[in-house]
Write the structure tokens for this entry.
Amino acid sequence: MLVREHGGELTDAELIGIAGLLLLAGHETTSNMLSLGTLALLRHPDQLAAVRDDPEAVGPAVEELLRWLSVVHNAIPRITTSEVEVAGVTIPAGALVLASLVSGNRDPAFVDRPDVLDISRGAVGHQAFGHGVHHCLGAPLARMEMRIALPALLQRFPTLTHVEPFDEIDFRSFHFIYGLKSLPVAW
């Protein structure tokens, strides 16, 4: 679609750069989202069963997992282009601001019970893929991969379980992309 609709506007180097970014960023974020999402569902067996057994539950479940897990944990620096007011505070044009996707996704003004995973709440919207001009180019691909992979994994291995106690599972907390070091499972 990018080549078809904008190919004449981009150089070969720009197209190659975009393709490389999609490959690297798309793999790292999606693979971590899949492992974290699997662990989250294993810890919520009723919600796991819905994702495994009800095709209608998969889309909203993916959106809720994206909101609840937020794999980009580092605040992202941005410069304001105009004066803006946020929560009663005026931020001047040209100011450095740090956007926290995790905080936005867990804001109680945004969603009721933000620390609760609830795939039945529907697709309430989230900041997992950023927003506006900074919205992730690979968001449709990531959604498609998750909507295919999670039910396929859970249907193929209906007795899937994690083999380590939750408090012993190692998380990659000091990487740009949040995830698991490993997730030992049995079935």
About this structure: The chain has a mean pLDDT of 90. The CA atoms of residues 13 and 19 lie 10 Å apart. DSSP finds six helices and eight strands in the chain.
